[in-house]
């Protein structure tokens, strides 16, 4: 199985870094004529996982919004109508005004990796809609929950 470069050093090691998960069941309307999940449905699954994760961390009670700045998805194998899936979510990096979320989707019955994803979320003031610096309370809550030493990404020519 060929894995994307952000899954390191091994798949098992990468999966062990996740401390949050949410479950969902594939609806028939999310599949195509062949009864496997349509590629567009994965964006919904990852969004649901991120929303549940951010809600769990208490970030919906503040005047900040997390908007998608960039998104990547790698498909590993098919999921089918009525499959029960687990969406794993974690924060992997902090930027000045953003954070990177990594996610994985596994088949609940077997633990097989179905898909993996990373998303750059940019912080925005809910009232002004301007980007804002990542608040300390966000970093502290994530570090406490994810029990990880997050790195600060330096990106070239990026406002994130």
From TrEMBL:
Keywords from the UniProt entry: Hydrolase
GO MF, one annotated term: fatty acyl-CoA hydrolase activity
Pfam families named among the record's database cross-references: 4HBT_2
SUPFAM superfamilies the UniProt entry points to: Thioesterase/thiol ester dehydrase-isomerase
Keyword Magnesium: no
InterPro entries per record: 4-hydroxybenzoyl-CoA_TE (IPR050563), HotDog_dom_sf (IPR029069)
Family membership: Belongs to the 4-hydroxybenzoyl-CoA thioesterase family.
Name used for this protein in its record: Acyl-CoA thioester hydrolase
């Amino acid at each position: 199985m060929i894995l994307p470069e952000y899954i390191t050093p091994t798949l098992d090691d990468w999966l062990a870094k996740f401390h949050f998960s949410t479950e969902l069941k594939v609806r028939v309307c999310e599949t195509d004529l062949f009864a496997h999940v349509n590629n567009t449905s994965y964006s919904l699954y990852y969004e649901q996982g991120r929303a549940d994760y951010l809600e769990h961390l208490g970030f919906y009670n503040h005047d900040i919004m997390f908007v998608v700045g960039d998104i990547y998805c790698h498909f590993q194998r098919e999921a089918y109508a009525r499959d029960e899936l687990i969406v794993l979510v974690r924060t992997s990096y902090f930027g000045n005004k953003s954070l990177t979320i990594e996610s994985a989707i596994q088949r609940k019955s077997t633990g097989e990796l179905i898909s993996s994803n990373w998303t750059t979320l940019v912080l925005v003031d809910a009232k002004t809609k301007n980007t804002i610096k990542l608040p300390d309370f966000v970093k502290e809550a994530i570090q406490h929950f994810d029990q990880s030493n997050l790195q600060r990404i330096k990106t070239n020519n990026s406002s994130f």
